[in-house]
Specification:
alpha+beta; five-stranded antiparallel β-sheet; two-stranded parallel ribbon; 7 strands; about 45% helix
Length: about 290
């Protein structure tokens, strides 16, 4: 083989090697950049989660700072808080008795709420019956089943009713589309199943059997009166099967990251808490949490 031909082959090998090394370096650089980008996204997500947690804690502090009468009218109050370095979180606070407690509420009110949310008799009837059966099972004491021969006796564990609103989707005739408008009005946590009219949405008040538009307007006006509890005492007494003004202890807090350096807008969390005002300082217990 001639010398020029050998030099040409060597040059070709060198160029090919340089090209491959360049490709490897570019690929490694892209991989490193991708790793850095993913780490940055995860960091922003974690920072956003902590911002939402901070928003929930700010909401708790806000609740503690209110007088008991003021807590009764928390019907979805919105606040925007700065959790540090210009990072903003929007919080929405609702008093828990403003929701229709599906485990305890009077069936007549629940039926009215579901009807106003667009459900028909075909869906409402089986749902009311299924919830009623769950309540009966929860109310009965545990029964000892007769064991088969050679087996130990096992007590029947009583049902506690539904523990999540999503369980409604497993009941007869229910699906997400049917319950879409009803879900925001429903809840699980109340003392006695009665509604706080000062924090309940008007859709719920309109479902109270025989309640008039004038009475609903008086409730709306009472919220701004500064003496709401006394102002609607007669209405609450008239509809005592459905309404009550118990001390506000249970609250549903929604927190959403709105914006700011390093926050992922839209990251949200919801928590249901119960206030223990007799403790010093006042404490909250978490009843439910979703993120």
């Amino acid at each position: 083989m001639s010398k020029p031909r050998e030099n040409g082959i060597v040059l070709l090998i060198v160029l090919w090697t340089l090209a491959m090394m360049t490709l490897i370096v570019v690929a490694m650089s892209a991989y490193a950049q991708r790793g850095i980008s993913l780490a940055s996204v995860e960091t922003d997500r974690l920072r956003s989660d902590w911002a939402v947690v901070s928003g929930v804690e700010a909401a708790k502090a806000y609740i503690v700072g209110l007088r008991p009468e003021e807590r009764l009218v928390l019907d979805g109050r919105e606040l925007t808080v700065d959790v540090g370095q210009g990072r903003r979180v929007r919080i929405v606070i609702k008093e828990g008795a403003g929701f229709v407690d599906i485990n305890r509420v009077d069936a007549r009110l629940l039926q009215g709420v579901l009807a106003r949310a667009g459900l028909g008799e075909v869906e409402i009837g089986p749902l009311i019956q299924a919830l009623g059966n769950l309540r009966l099972k929860a109310a009965n004491p545990a029964k000892t089943q007769q064991p088969a021969a050679g087996q130990e006796e096992k007590p029947e564990v009583p049902s506690a009713g539904l523990v999540s609103l999503m369980e409604l989707l497993s009941l007869p005739g229910m699906d997400a589309a049917a319950l879409k408008d009803a879900m925001p009005l429903l809840g699980l946590h109340s003392e006695d199943g009665k509604i706080n009219p000062l924090s309940a949405p008007e859709e719920v008040l309109r479902a109270v059997p025989n309640m008039t538009a004038e009475e609903i307007a008086s409730i709306r006006a009472a919220k701004a009166s500064g003496n709401a509890k006394a102002a609607i005492g007669a209405v609450v007494e008239k509809y005592a099967d459905f309404l009550a003004l118990n001390d506000a202890k249970i609250f549903v807090i929604d927190a959403v990251a709105e914006g700011g350096r390093g926050l992922v807008a839209g990251v949200r969390g919801q928590t249901t808490v119960i206030l223990e005002p007799e403790s010093r300082p006042p404490k909250f217990r978490t009843l439910a949490l979703s993120w």
